[in-house]
Design goal:
42 strands, alpha+beta, 7-stranded antiparallel sheet, 42% helix
Length: 1904
């Protein structure tokens, strides 16, 4: 029974406390005055009466009513029913008015005479009877207003003393003594919520989906806020939401109506359900994590940061369907032609229950079988129950499901377990549904109509619960009369009530209650049914494993083999078993099988058995989630302490020491669940024993019944508990307690087994898992503050402080302590026992550590289990091991070729060892897959090419250990992912990393392999070298010293400008006992007096410098000769200057430079300051035909440039230094221009006529033809924006130009008004730059048409072509102005920054060698390649180069002046020379090109390659590689122009980063001289096996093998190459992609030789086993293709050599053989009298193109890059056949014949055999193209039986029948063919046929 109302309160407006118009309410009276003991008076009632604030209003408002809900501290809800009406007050005019005036200063406001204040009557109750409260308060108000005769005190007294039952379904009639009568209906069962029609209302307001969102949000603990302008609706909506959550109870903040004053509550961090009036909508806008439901607008707003987990499918779909069938039954029939007649949805009250039934049905499905996952851990004194979440989720295969996880973790579910867990209690509708209707629900769930009928049944029960009887209730409550409600005359104020009178009523009732007998409510307790257990419905992925029976069979067999010691059989099955163990069934099977081999808790195995069992256990555990959803870890737990092996005397190693690396063991939840299930089993056993003892007799007949479940047992015990005596009860409590205690000790042991690593010095496990913060994931619902504090106090007692968290033992002790505290507190262990436990745990752990130490020691001595023996790598001469092999696994990366995914054998993962040598990092091992176990896998790269190293952790498929690993990436496009074997100590791995780092970044270049090789590891420079260049060393010292002296400190500190080459030399200078100082180039040159130091060695150095290759090249080009004593002939335009012989002018230039004859050295010293790094323009190549020169320089210094380019003639008052330099600069350029013959022809007159005439004269026809192309190119390079079609279509444009301009139609530019043809008039606005299109037009040799169509002015004729084009960096040349009389033109282009190259290369490496398989299309190879922009960069470099080639070819000189002049400049300049000059496409030429442009001109190889510690930070920038890639692109397009093969380029690309040779080591000649590297190669061959120069090495190798030679090499004279540069024409270089796992990279040839020798020795042993097959399998990523499948010519040369070797002849060099063959071909050709028709056709003017394309096709069709067919054409592209051409027949003989060859005439002829042989029919083919007659056995035959060369045929004559000829054949059918060697006799089928044959052959002969 309960009071209907606890308190009655009158709340009024508080006139005294008014703050700025904000009124306050105050309690005027409350009854009773004194609090009830069982329910204290709730605070803050006055706030809730007027939630929007207390305000006075000018006119009376209608009375209002709503119910607010307050929650007290013990989380009981109090319902406050507020009835508010308005009473008139006299306006406190004076005070008010003055206030208002002051505030608003608006006297115009008319103050009303009367204002109204609110007053509220409030009922506070713990029962929720809204209607009853409304009636009661309405009655009181009516009595007051209408002045009825009943005293208010009586009514209120009656109200407060009314007692009604809480539940039971009875009706109670009450009256308050004012002639009223009401019936109160109690629900039958108070555990079911009462909802009236609030749920249905909620769905009407918000709609199905929105309410489902709110429902899921409330269950997953999100914050929910309702908005409405009606208070009652807010209360109803909240009530509705709680009702559909049944059977879960909401346990967070619940405030259906929140007063405006308390809005800050909304920013609380905890979840809530709150309602707020829409009036405060704006205040709710900035809440970021609150879901807002607007009841009036029907919307819900979910913030971005909130993710609501929805119900799992298919539940969500089914529930939506069911709800729409309830709420909108017409939907289903909306499309029917004859819809049913009556389809009204049920009445609101019924609909409400139907919706609730749907949700009840939903929960029954969600929680079905939950009782099977309850662990009962204590029965007495009261049951303690825990829920096993992991098992529940695992059995439902919902571990991945977000929603259910969150619900089970939530507070509501915790309440559900503690409320519904106990097995013996009163049950309700839900208990019945979830236990007994499971089957029905499962069968019906897919059929909505059956679901509906079930829902209707449930709804009926719910409705009955609220309304057990038909509504007969007679309500009679008076309402106030209309007149009194609307009257405006003064109503009386609500009177003060007589407290004494009311109190008397209350006391009287209380006394009556005391004397009444107590009401005893009979609680019907019963055993709660559990329902059917959850079957193993599904596997992890939601589908039953396919053919699982077969898999289980495999697992069983394997285990049997292991225990029968059939190890080979077991090994074969192992991979299959490990695959099968992915499925759950197989894992369960494994645990069961292993269980059978355990006897008395032990199973002793030998080493191999132990290894296999551990492997299988690890695999089983590997896929377990950390919560162990299938109980696999739980099943293995007893097994890991059972299986063991003997290590030595008395030392046993158990399996647990090898399976610790799994997350499961570090999860507190797992241990709790395990502990509870064990405790449950023990307690069950405890009671089953006692029962067996007591009731042995009774159980006799029913002994066969099923095993009793723990919950059933507990409920039985609970039922008997009251009947037991005190002693019995105590005894049971104690027994249970000690059971739990003993289990706790057992678990402390078990946990220490699995948490302490075998090697306790390694803190592996604790690092990878969060042992430190386990509480955060704990599964407990009781937050044990007591437990926590106790744990801490014990910790300190036992001497384990928290500080040492790194110590393994301590952290394990802490973990176990935490576990023990938790479970013991939850299961009621006494404090004494808990204390004892805490004292024991450190000892248990310590003991275990001691045993482990012994085991660890012994296990180290174990011979490793048949791991493959480590293979030693072959080393280069001079290469030494730094670290011997460490056993590792090579793990597959993102390249899938080797893993077997793309077909072929899985070569990776492989196990072997990693070796670190002074030169390389080498992995050598064998694949783990037994099928390819014989193959050797090698992966290596030079240490110097390492670009990135990072630590990774790896899980290996077989062993399931998580291992430390490294991922090493190299710029030779190699990636090594290695995982260290467990035998490698982690400190050793660290040592390895340190060594690697030291080798990769030596202190100084002298530490690199190229210098240390062969010097027994000590970094000693050879003596000879030292003496030789002693003077240079001293020179450099003195240089630095004098520099320091003269500069003085101020220069050093400012460091105004200094070349980076010096900044990075700190380490070297410190060797020279100098501080690090940057030599500033601003020092006055005269102060560096070099004369003293240089005299002695001057000559020698100079002669060395002169010997340099560059000089030979300059002489070849005719750029200046060095006659004796360095005198020069004056008539040459250029001279070789020695101004830089001491490297003082420019440190990064060579010693000898080509400058114009007329420029003295002193000028050069001045000019150089204008350029960055002092790299002033020097000539590096001259076109032998047009005599145009190519110059290179760095970009201009910012200050020098602009003055120079803008206006050279600007009047300056004071001639500043900058001016004079710019004038000198101009002179310099002018000198270059005047050196050109085309300029001197015009006798240098700087006049218009002169210009015009020279240009008219020199632009000969060839120029005219080519010119348009340049304009086009120029526009491409500079990227013009304007497109006007038709600029290039006019005029006779040459064929090639057409091709190019069409292929990129955007090229054409718009002809502008020529008078604006100055550079300065247009600023760079385009992407590359918008430039003056006149340049393009001018280059195209066209006049710019006038806008009016008139002829262009004569003056602008000169704007045809400049003498000198300066290719400059766009960003620097901004705003430069071109003077119309200067003869140079600036072409601004945008160059790729070094940073771009660096980043692009990184991305290229990741694209070509990804570290993990690509996950989606966004990461595919081509996408990554495109993202890297590598191809775009190549395109840009090639494009600029082609433009420069064109300009040079048309006779203009070009100066390339970009960035610092050592990156892009070098690329462009070298490509230009390669394209223009065939010499550079030979071996010698290319070497010279690289030595000259890259090495002498100071490309910073060491800096860009990050070769030393100093340049480490700058990172690897492959500028040279980019150049080689460009050469490779050109090589692909012109395969017959290069003497060297693609392999040669790859070889250089590999070795320029490998540091094996010194060639590419330092940054400039200066540095090389300083180190004494430059000239040492001459004459000094101390150690012949060590090659210091890559060029010598290549030469030596080239003599031995044709690997570098391109057989298709047949250059044309003076051919200029013009490759296509569009990205679509470029190919990815296979250097980036190929890999040879059999031997590693093939660029160190000594290794190949050694490997082959070893292989031969192995092969020499006689192999008698079986006949060897001739077939060889070639694996693309494993074999070296060029070796296994060599191209035809290489193969023939090899065969030749081996034959000569067999015959004992001395074999000649391959090159001689090759040259001989070529010469014989030529002589054959000469002998041929008449060139055949076809050959002349081939050589017609079209030849050059055809030849190229043939070459390309030949090459494309080849397998590798090296099937090169010798198409050897040595003639220029003329239209007449030239003597010395190979005959076409020899050309063709090198093609393989195919079906589709040219057959001019064919048929059957009888041919007479040799002497005494019969005539035989043969199929003859006459081939005009190859000029031969071939014959075959039959028509279908592919193999040619013989060939008659028509070249040898002398005549064809009619023959005669001979002996043995075929019978019955016409005489005339015979004919003879006479050749130089013999006569052939033929016979056709008839005379006609014979005549045809003779004619055909004759015509062929005459054609030839």
């Amino acid at each position: 029974m309960a009071r209907l109302a606890d308190y009655f309160v009158v709340v009024g407006y508080d006139l005294d406390k008014r703050v700025e118009g904000e009124g306050q309410g105050r309690i005027l009276q409350r009854f009773p005055e004194k609090d009830w003991e069982d329910s204290p008076f709730p605070q803050g009632v006055e706030l809730f009466c007027q939630p929007s604030g207390w305000q006075l209003v000018p006119e009376r408002q209608p009375a209002s009513f709503f119910v607010a809900v307050l929650t007290d501290i013990s989380s009981d809800r109090h319902y406050c029913a507020c009835f508010t009406f308005w009473e008139g007050l006299d306006n406190p005019q004076k005070s008010e008015a003055s206030e208002v005036d002051e505030a608003d200063e608006e006297p115009a406001v008319v103050q009303p005479a009367k204002i109204f204040a609110p007053k509220s009557l409030v009922l506070v109750s713990r029962l929720d009877y809204t209607e009853v409260f409304r009636n009661c308060l309405g009655l009181i108000y009516t009595i007051h207003v209408d002045g009825l005769s009943v005293p208010l005190e009586t009514v209120i007294g009656n109200l407060l003393t009314c007692i009604i039952p809480i539940a039971g379904g009875s009706q109670r009639t009450i009256t308050l003594g004012a002639g009223d009568r009401q019936v109160i209906q109690t629900p039958i069962n108070d555990s079911l919520p009462v909802s009236g029609s609030s749920v249905a209302q909620l769905f009407r307001q918000l709609g199905i989906i929105n309410v489902l969102y709110l429902f899921c949000a409330a269950l997953t603990e999100h914050k929910i806020l309702f908005l409405s302008s009606s208070y009652q609706r807010l209360t109803d909506a909240c009530r509705g939401l709680l009702a559909i959550m049944f059977p879960l109870k909401y346990s967070f903040t619940y405030v259906p109506i929140l007063p405006g004053k308390l809005l800050e509550v909304l920013s609380t961090p905890t979840p809530f359900i709150i309602g707020v009036n829409s009036f405060f909508r704006s205040e709710t806008q900035e809440l970021l994590d609150v879901i807002i439901a607007d009841l009036d607008g029907g919307t819900i707003t979910i913030p971005e940061c909130v993710h609501i987990s929805l119900l799992p499918e298919p539940l969500l779909q089914q529930i939506q369907t069911a709800l729409s069938m309830v709420l909108d039954p017409e939907l289903e029939f909306a499309d029917h032609a004859f819809p049913p007649q009556s389809l009204q949805p049920s009445a609101l009250k019924i609909q409400d229950k139907e919706i609730r039934a749907v949700f009840l049905w939903l929960f029954a499905r969600l929680f079905q079988g939950y009782r099977w996952c309850l662990h009962i851990i204590r029965i007495h004194p009261e049951p303690v129950i825990r829920f096993h979440k992991a098992a529940f989720l695992g059995q439902r295969a919902l571990t991945e499901d977000d929603f259910l996880m969150k619900v089970l973790d939530g507070m509501a579910f915790a309440g559900f377990v503690s409320e519904r867990g106990p097995p013996y209690r009163a049950t309700d509708l839900f208990d019945d549904l979830v236990a007994n209707q499971v089957e029905r629900i499962r069968q019906e769930e897919t059929c909505p109509h059956k679901v509906m009928s079930h829902v209707k049944e449930l709804a009926e029960q719910l409705f009955k619960n609220e309304n057990p009887y038909p509504a007969v209730a007679m309500h009679k409550v008076q309402r106030p009369s209309e007149s009194s409600q609307n009257s405006t005359q003064n109503q009386t104020v609500f009177p003060g009530l007589d407290e004494v009178a009311v109190q008397l009523f209350i006391d009287h009732a209380a006394a009556k209650l005391k004397s009444a007998p107590p009401v005893v409510k009979v609680e019907l307790k019963s055993m709660v049914p559990s329902g059917p257990p959850l079957g193993d419905i599904v596997d992890r992925n939601g589908n039953v494993m396919a053919n699982s029976a077969r898999r289980l069979e495999v697992v069983r067999n394997c285990i049997t083999y292991i225990f029968e010691n059939k190890m080979l059989e077991a090994k074969k099955l192992m991979p299959a078993v490990l695959r099968a163990l992915k499925g759950r069934a197989a894992r369960v099977c494994l645990t069961q099988e292993l269980n059978q081999h355990v006897l008395q808790n032990r199973a002793v195995l030998d080493d191999q058995q132990f290894d296999y069992v551990v492997r299988m256990m690890n695999c089983t555990l590997q896929d377990c989630s950390h919560i162990d959803e299938h109980g696999i870890a739980a099943a293995l737990l007893p097994l890991v302490t059972a299986f063991c092996r003997k290590l030595g005397a008395g030392i046993t190693q158990f399996a647990y020491s090898c399976v610790q690396e799994h997350m499961v063991w570090t999860t507190m939840q797992f241990w709790e669940a395990m502990f509870y299930s064990d405790v449950q089993n023990h307690i069950k056993a405890l009671y089953l024993e006692t029962e067996d003892g007591d009731q042995q007799g009774n159980l006799g007949e029913s002994g066969s019944r099923r095993e009793i479940g723990a919950l059933e047992l507990a409920s039985e015990q609970n039922r008997l508990w009251p009947t037991l005596s005190k002693e019995m009860q105590m005894e049971r409590v104690q027994k249970e307690e000690s059971t739990v205690f003993s289990q706790a000790i057992h678990y402390a042991n078990r946990m220490s087994y699995l948490l302490l690593p075998l090697d306790t010095s390694k803190n592996r496990l604790l690092r990878s898992s969060g042992l430190g913060d386990v509480e955060s994931v704990s599964n407990s619902y009781v937050t044990n503050s007591i437990a926590g504090s106790m744990a801490e106090s014990y910790d300190t007692e036992s001497g384990f402080e928290d500080a040492e968290s790194s110590d393994v033992a301590n952290s394990v002790v802490r973990f176990i302590n935490r576990f023990v505290d938790k479970v013991c507190n939850e299961s009621g262990v006494t404090n004494e026992h808990l204390k004892a436990l805490h004292l024991m745990i450190p000892d248990i752990v310590q003991m275990h550590i001691e045993t482990l130490d012994a085991v660890h020691r012994e296990s180290k001595r174990l011979p490793p289990i048949q791991k493959p023996k480590l293979l030693r790598p072959t080393l280069l001469p001079g290469e030494e091991l730094v670290m011997d092999g460490m056993r590792v696994h090579l793990i597959p990366d993102g390249r899938e070729e080797a893993t077997g995914l793309m077909g072929g054998p899985p070569l990776l993962p492989a196990e072997g060892a990693i070796f670190l040598t002074t030169y390389r990092l080498i992995f050598k091992g064998t694949p783990t897959d037994p099928l390819v176990g014989e193959q050797v896998v090698t992966r290596s790269f030079p240490v110097a090419s390492l670009t990135k190293e990072k630590r990774i952790s790896v899980t290996l498929t077989m062993d399931q250990y998580v291992q430390e690993g490294l991922q090493l990436r190299s710029c030779t496009f190699q990636l090594m992912k290695i995982a260290f074997d467990e035998e490698v100590a982690s400190d050793l791995a660290e040592v390895f990393r340190k060594h690697l780092h030291k080798l990769r970044y030596p202190q100084h270049v002298q530490g690199t392999f190229a210098f240390t090789v062969g010097q027994c590891g000590k970094l000693v420079v050879e003596h000879k070298t030292k003496d030789k260049n002693q003077s240079l060393k001293t020179l450099s010292k003195n240089l630095v010293k004098t520099a320091k002296r003269t500069i003085g400190r101020q220069y050093v500190t400012k460091k105004k400008y200094s070349p980076p080459t010096w900044e990075n030399r700190g380490s070297f200078q410190s060797e020279l006992d100098e501080d690090e100082i940057s030599v500033s180039e601003e020092v006055d040159q005269s102060s560096l007096t070099l004369s003293s130091t240089i005299r002695s060695s001057d000559r020698q150095t100079m002669s060395n410098v002169v010997e340099r290759a560059c000089c030979r090249d300059y002489q070849r080009l005719g750029l200046g000769t060095l006659s004796n004593s360095l005198t020069r002939s004056k008539n040459e335009p250029f001279r070789i200057s020695t101004v830089n012989r001491m490297y003082t002018v420019c440190r990064s230039y060579p010693g000898l430079l080509i400058v114009p004859q007329s420029i003295p050295d002193s000028t050069i010293q001045r000019i150089c300051r204008c350029y960055r790094q002092n790299r002033f323009p020097v000539v590096c190549w001259r076109n032998s035909r047009t005599k145009a020169v190519l110059l290179r320089s760095a970009g201009l210094h910012a200050k020098g440039v602009v003055g120079f380019f803008k206006s050279p003639n600007a009047p300056t008052t004071v001639p500043s230094q900058a001016d004079s330099t710019s004038l000198e600069q101009e002179k310099y350029l002018q000198a270059i221009i005047s050196s050109m013959p085309s300029y001197s022809e015009s006798s240098g007159r700087n006049t218009l006529s002169g210009f015009t005439s020279t240009h008219m004269n020199t632009s000969d026809s060839s120029d005219k033809m080519r010119n348009p192309k340049i304009g086009a190119l120029m526009k491409q390079v500079m990227g013009s924006k304007e497109d006007v079609p038709g600029t290039f279509s006019r005029g006779a444009v040459g064929q090639r130009a057409k091709v190019i301009s069409h292929s990129q139609p955007k090229v054409s530019g718009k002809a502008r008004n020529p008078s604006r043809g100055k550079w300065g008039s247009i600023r760079g606005s385009g992407r590359l730059s918008a430039y003056n299109p006149d340049v393009g037009t001018r280059l195209a040799g066209k006049e710019s048409p006038q806008p009016n169509g008139g002829p262009s002015e004569a003056m602008f004729l000169r704007q045809q072509r400049a003498y000198l084009y300066i290719i400059g960096d766009k960003s620097q040349l901004k705003g430069g102005k071109q003077d119309s009389f200067q003869q140079w033109e600036v072409v601004p282009i945008e160059v790729c920054d070094v940073r771009q190259v660096k980043n692009s290369f990184k991305k290229l490496m990741k694209a070509c060698v990804p570290s993990s398989p690509s996950l989606g299309p966004s990461m595919s190879f081509l996408r990554c390649l495109e993202d890297s922009e590598w191809m775009a960069l190549l395109h840009r470099v090639l494009q600029v180069s082609v433009l420069v080639v064109e300009l040079l070819d048309t006779g203009s000189s070009v100066m390339v002046s970009l960035e610092d002049g050592w990156d892009v400049t070098t690329q462009v300049v070298s490509l230009v020379q390669l394209l223009s000059d065939p010499y550079y496409r030979t071996f010698d030429g290319f070497r010279l090109l690289v030595e000259k442009e890259w090495l002498s001109f100071g490309h910073r190889f060491s800096h860009r390659g990050a070769q030393t510690l100093g340049s480490q930070s700058s990172g690897f920038t492959p500028v040279f590689l980019q150049f080689l890639d460009c050469v490779h692109q050109i090589h692909l397009q012109f395969p017959m122009e290069f003497e060297f093969s693609q392999y040669y380029l790859k070889f250089l690309a590999y070795h320029y980063v490998s540091n094996r040779f010194r060639t590419f080591l330092l940054d400039s000649d200066y540095e090389r001289i300083e180190l004494g590297v430059l000239y040492e190669e001459k004459g000094e061959r101390k150690s012949p096996q060590v090659c210091k120069s890559v060029w010598d090495y290549i030469d030596r190798l080239n003599k031995k093998t044709p690997i570098f030679y391109n057989y298709m090499f047949s250059p044309e004279d003076e051919e200029v190459l013009r490759p296509y540069t569009f990205i679509s024409n470029l190919k990815v270089w296979d250097f980036y992609m190929e890999e040879t796992l059999s031997e590693g990279p093939s660029y160190d040839w000594e290794l190949r030789g050694r490997q082959e020798r070893a292989a031969e020795e192995a092969a020499e042993k006689p192999d008698t086993s079986a006949p060897k097959s001739q077939r060889v399998i070639v694996w693309p990523c494993y074999d070296n293709l060029s070796k296994v499948v060599p191209d035809a010519i290489t193969k023939l040369l090899q065969d030749l050599q081996s034959l000569e070797a067999e015959l004992g002849q001395t074999s000649e060099k391959w090159k001689d053989t090759w040259d001989k063959i070529k010469n014989t071909q030529r002589t054959e050709t000469k002998l041929e009298s008449k060139p055949s028709f076809s050959s002349s056709l081939l050589m017609s003017s079209n030849l050059s193109h055809q030849r190229r394309s043939q070459g390309v096709y030949l090459q494309e069709s080849g397998v590798g890059s090296s099937i090169n067919l010798g198409l050897d054409c040595e003639a220029s592209a003329t239209s007449t056949p030239v003597a010395g051409r190979p005959s076409t027949s020899t050309l063709y003989s090198q093609f393989q014949s195919t079906e589709s060859e040219n057959r001019s005439f064919e048929g059957i002829l009888y041919k007479r055999g040799a002497l005494l042989k019969p005539w035989k029919p043969r199929w003859f083919v006459l081939d005009k193209t190859k000029h031969q007659l071939r014959y075959y056995e039959t028509r279908q035959d592919k193999e040619c039986k013989g060939v008659i060369e028509l070249a040898e045929v002398e005549s064809v004559t009619a023959g005669t029948s001979a002996m043995g000829a075929p019978k019955s054949i016409d005489e005339k059918a015979f004919f003879d063919l006479k050749t130089t060697k013999r006569v052939y006799n033929f016979c056709a089928q008839d005379s006609l046929n014979a005549q045809l044959w003779m004619d055909s052959v004759q015509s062929c002969l005459s054609d030839a």
